[in-house]
């Protein structure tokens, strides 16, 4: 039986996608997320969210604050914002695409950018280069959780560059394939190995589907 390691603990429905493909699964959290305490104005016109963690942290810390317009990365982030009653003006699959959209369409606006302590430079660097006003709020803290796993897998699922770094601090993937959630995560994985594939969309389910298809064929 083919084996898969997920560097993120999956939901029951996500696990079943792999188990129904007759694939054995080992899972753990390669990173730990801790929501930070922060202060923001009671009314925010434009907010940028690049992950569901930022959204969860916002609502845990600031239930009384209001946001008029949201701009986000990822379908799941968009759905979470809308589920909580917020209006999403623009969603893109990647941070670089959102940064380009903001520069092209909202150059004169001001933004609050909710992110983690470990975040990519695509959005802040692009906004700075084009003199777009924004305030960065560190909404959550990411820490690595490296664990030694004494076996090899046909595929390892990666969901962030931090997860990649955490895994390879203690492990090697000799013959297996790294299945990554997006181009940024894949770029990090290629620093450690050659056999890297990218999911069709930036969702956990797409990563699982890519792995299942890879191992069945």
UniProtKB/TrEMBL annotation:
Which keywords does this chain's UniProt record carry? Lyase
Q: Which domain of life is it from?
A: Bacteria
Q: Name one GO cellular component term.
A: cytosol
Q: Does the keyword Lyase apply?
A: yes
CDD domains from the UniProt entry: HemD
The keyword Lyase is assigned to this record: yes
Cross-referenced Gene3D superfamilies: 3.40.50.10090
Single annotated GO MF = uroporphyrinogen-III synthase activity
Q: Which GO terms describe its biological process?
A: uroporphyrinogen III biosynthetic process
What Pfam families does the record point to?
HEM4 (PF02602)
Q: What is its EC number?
A: 4.2.1.75
Domain Tetrapyrrole biosynthesis uroporphyrinogen III synthase: residue ranges = 21-208
The main enzyme category here is lyase
Q: What is this protein called?
A: Uroporphyrinogen-III synthase
**Organism for this UniProt entry:** Aequorivita flava
């Amino acid at each position: 039986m083919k084996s898969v390691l997920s560097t993120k603990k999956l939901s029951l429905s996500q696990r079943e996608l792999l188990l129904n493909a007759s694939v054995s699964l080992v899972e753990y959290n390669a990173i730990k997320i801790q929501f930070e305490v922060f202060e923001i104005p009671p009314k925010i016109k434009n907010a940028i969210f690049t992950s569901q963690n930022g959204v969860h942290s916002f609502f845990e810390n600031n239930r009384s604050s209001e946001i008029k317009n949201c701009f986000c990365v990822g379908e799941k982030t968009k759905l979470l914002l809308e589920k909580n009653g917020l209006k999403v003006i623009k969603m893109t699959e990647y941070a670089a695409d959102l940064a380009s959209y903001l520069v092209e369409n909202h150059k004169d606006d001001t933004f609050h950018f909710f992110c983690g302590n470990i975040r990519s430079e695509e959005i802040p660097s692009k906004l700075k280069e084009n003199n777009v006003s924004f305030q960065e709020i560190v909404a959550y803290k990411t820490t690595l959780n490296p664990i030694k796993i004494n076996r090899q897998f046909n595929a390892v699922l990666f969901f962030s560059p931090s997860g990649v770094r955490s895994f390879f601090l203690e492990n090697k993937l000799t013959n297996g394939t790294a299945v990554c959630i997006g181009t940024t995560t894949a770029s990090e994985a290629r620093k450690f190995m050659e056999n890297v594939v990218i999911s069709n969309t930036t969702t956990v389910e797409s990563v699982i589907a890519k792995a299942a298809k890879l191992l069945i064929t």
